[in-house]
């Protein structure tokens, strides 16, 4: 997410259109896809955020703030857990209602090409955070103010946040969103993302119970998420 260094404005709803979608389990559902007015001047068109509103969210909606991952979301990359997390949220929201905020901050905010450079370094032994440092890039450049502003534009300041990432919850809180409940996601581990998930747990405090990790032949073992300790926010 670009940091404009300027005052962060309020957003308002620009358009809301129905977009029927087919979920990965084959079901169909029709969220409203919402765009926003009020992004700072110069905001790149390829960074425009979206909200997908499923059903009629209650006063404390389930919310997933998802950062774009082209390789995971679109191509089904097994190097990370983004695709399964996105699919899990959409399936859940189709059943229970909810808001998916899709933020265009690829590669934890460093961009697509840098992410691929980091993958190349990971293939020589670095973990996901070490690789970023070797490239003189931050561990995590994501900025969630636009998610908070979008939620406010949709009329929500209290949410049940579907996430394992403590930084996401902290930033939303700083930007005026009350996280009433933290709802953990599933643990989507496979032999290719095992090290990545462990690094997120060990170095960024993500709350994921990485189970069955690296087991040959296990392509996607959806395990349980660890019950997290007091004040647990994921
Ligand atoms: Zn990913």
Automatic annotation (TrEMBL):
Domain of life where this protein originates: Bacteria
Reactions listed under catalytic activity: GTP + 4 H2O = 2,5-diamino-6-hydroxy-4-(5-phosphoribosylamino)-pyrimidine + formate + 2 phosphate + 3 H(+)
A Pfam family matched in the record: GTP_cyclohydro2
Functional pathway: Cofactor biosynthesis; riboflavin biosynthesis; 5-amino-6-(D-ribitylamino)uracil from GTP: step 1/4
GO BP terms: riboflavin biosynthetic process
Cofactor entry: Zn(2+)
GO CC annotation terms, alphabetical: cytosol
Keywords: GTP-binding, Hydrolase, Metal-binding, Nucleotide-binding, Riboflavin biosynthesis, Zinc
Domain GTP cyclohydrolase II: 46-184
SUPFAM superfamilies listed in its UniProt record: RibA-like (SSF142695)
CDD domains in alphabetical order: GTP_cyclohydro2
Enzyme class: hydrolase
GO molecular function term, any single one: GTP cyclohydrolase II activity
EC number, as in UniProt: 3.5.4.25
InterPro entries membership: GTP_cyclohydro_II, RibA, RibA-like_sf
PANTHER family in the cross-refs: 3,4-DIHYDROXY-2-BUTANONE 4-PHOSPHATE SYNTHASE, GTP CYCLOHYDROLASE II-RELATED
Protein name as catalogued: GTP cyclohydrolase II
Organism: Streptomyces carminius
Lineage, broadest ranks: Bacteria, Bacillati, Actinomycetota, Actinomycetes, Kitasatosporales
């Amino acid at each position: 997410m670009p940091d404009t260094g300027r005052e962060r404005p309020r957003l308002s709803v620009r358009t809301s259109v129905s977009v029927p979608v087919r979920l990965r389990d084959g079901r169909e559902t029709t969220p409203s896809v919402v765009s926003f007015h009020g992004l700072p001047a110069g905001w790149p068109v390829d960074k425009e955020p979206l909200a997908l509103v499923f059903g009629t969210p209650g006063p404390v909606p389930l919310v997933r703030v998802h950062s774009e991952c082209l390789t995971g979301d679109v191509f089904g990359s097994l190097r990370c857990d983004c695709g399964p997390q996105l699919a899990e949220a959409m399936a859940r929201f189709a059943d229970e209602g909810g808001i998916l905020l899709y933020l265009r901050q690829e590669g934890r905010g460093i961009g697509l090409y840098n992410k691929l450079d980091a993958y190349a370094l990971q293939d020589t032994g670095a973990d996901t955070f070490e690789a970023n440092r070797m490239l003189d890039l931050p561990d995590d450049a994501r900025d969630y103010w636009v998610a908070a502003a979008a939620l406010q534009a949709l009329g929500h300041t209290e949410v049940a946040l579907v996430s394992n990432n403590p930084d996401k919850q902290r930033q939303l809180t700083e930007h005026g969103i009350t996280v009433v409940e933290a709802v953990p996601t599933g643990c989507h581990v496979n032999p290719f993302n095992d090290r990545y998930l462990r690094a997120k747990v060990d170095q960024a405090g993500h709350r994921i119970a990485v189970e069955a990790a690296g087991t040959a032949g296990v392509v996607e073992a959806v395990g349980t998420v660890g019950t997290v300790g007091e004040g647990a926010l994921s």
